[in-house]
Every structure is written in C-alpha cells, then in structure tokens.
Amino acid sequence: MRTLTVGIGCRLHSSAEEIETAVRATLGSHSFDEISTIASVDIKAHETGLLEFCARHALPLKLFSREQIAAISVDDPSAAAREHLGMDGVCEPCALLAAAAESDAARAPDAAHASIGSITPLGSFAAETPNARLLVRKTVHAGVTVAIASTTARLACEQTNNDTREQDLP
Known about the structure:
The structure is a single chain. By secondary structure, the protein is α/β, with parallel strands linked by helices. It has one domain (4-157): Nucleotidyltransferase, domain 5 (2-Layer Sandwich), CATH 3.30.420. The chain contains five helices and six strands. Strands 4-3-2-1-6-5 form a six-stranded mixed sheet, sandwiched between helices. The protein is globular and about 35 Å long. The model is unreliable at 109-129 and 154-170 (pLDDT under 50).
C-alpha cells in the first residue's frame, strides 16, 4: 500500500540518479513501492532531475509555496535553506504537508485541486491534519535532503538520523 510521502530538497541541477540514491538510502526498512507522493518547494517545478526521477517511477510531484512550508516548525533548521530560500527547511515540511494533503483528499475525494501533468501545486491544503508524522527525519546525501512522512503509520519504529522522535504537523 502506498502510504509514504517523500519530501525532497536538492541543489540546483541535482540529477535523477542522485535523487534516487538519496531516496533509496533514506527509505531504510520501507519499500520503494510504499511511496505515494514526492513533495518539494514550488521553485523546484522545473528542476530536471526531480521531474525525471518522478517520471521514471510514475510518482506525482506535489509542490508547496514558501509560505506553506515556513508555517511548519522544523526541529533542525537548515542553514542552506535559510540562506537560499528564506525558510528553515524543505524536505521535512514538504513531506508533512503532502501527507496531510493526501489525508485531506482521502476524507474529501471530491475536493478538486489543479493539476499540471503530474505536478500538483497545492493551495491552502492541509495544516489542520494533526496525524501527519515524520517517519524519517531529514537525511542528507550528496546535496539532496530527504524526509519521509505518513498519516497511516508504522510509527512504532520510526527512523531518523539516530533519533527516534516523531514530529506532529501543527
């Protein structure tokens, strides 16, 4: 069952191979087949490596605005995200927002949102979904950051970078 949302932050011109390596390394005991959605910041809408990765695996890409992302608390702020984008992180907030959006969509399947190919820019979806949780906190692999969230949870044995805390979506 596809229950995982994967938030990705990456350097400009990261390749599909670099992104795939980072995602596979971050999955740990989770299966690639459990991924339902890839999520990132809206300025990555034309990032070739990210688009190619999503296309190769037939995964939708959900994009969130800086404002949406900045509204989500990040325990371990990223200096790079702060410097380049003016926010504390990308992958963790995006993973949480995408999980919350999927949960909202499951509860209200008729709620339409715009779709451009396989890219879905999301409006003011989701911040009221308190059950979105990080299963894997931010991990970094060669300039690609990855975090994994879900609303249906194998939360008992969450993975992190040697940390077993979970984070709720406010």
